């Protein structure tokens, strides 16, 4: 994904995204580099220029907690980006074990299947769909495959119509993968997804280079299904106990509203094929 180190790449991208006036520094004449100079970040963080340069170049990979906090303040990182910076400073032995792909538990699958009126699905660190109930599958039936949220947003032709606030969805997808990358920079699956999407989408590649970080949270979404039309949903994501790399995503509709009615139509559409498949063997065995 890069020739640099995860820590150095992040620091460089966030430094280049800032202008001198963003941090209260004067700006004189033409600047040869985008954003702040390394020396300016070092000044703001209260460290030597040589030390900060070593951080960006990967020659210093274990800064103290005080230095990390000072650099985060200097780069005006929000809480999520500052946490990401702290994770990038961890050594391999310091990272939590058990981060990565695993099967979705049988109990969670049963729970989701019981939510007949609520779309629910589980995503992995690279936004792969690891499991989904029938209503979630019906909701995403306009896509070629319901397999990876980022691929669906950036590559599938249905993405721009389904996600009515496409730019917001695009930024969120990339920022969520970037957050997961901070937990496991060596993840082969994240590297694979990033490489594939960067090759297929210039927009994804550009957003990935920005190093924005954001986890899933509660918010609203405006979607448009090809058969039931506009959907205004409430969205929430929950970390799965025992599998912190998995996120349970739940879509909810306002009770008795148009989106709830659309969900019921989708549920009926999902049930009909099952009934047809169940009836087929009986029809085949009945005498002509």
Automatic annotation (TrEMBL):
Pfam families: HTH_31, MLTR_LBD. SUPFAM superfamilies: lambda repressor-like DNA-binding domains (SSF47413). It comes from the Bacteria. Residues 35-82 form the HTH cro/C1-type domain. PROSITE patterns: HTH_CROC1 (PS50943). GO terms for molecular function: DNA binding. InterPro entries: Cro/C1-type_HTH, Lambda_DNA-bd_dom_sf, MLTR_LBD. This is Helix-turn-helix domain-containing protein. It comes from Streptomyces liliifuscus.
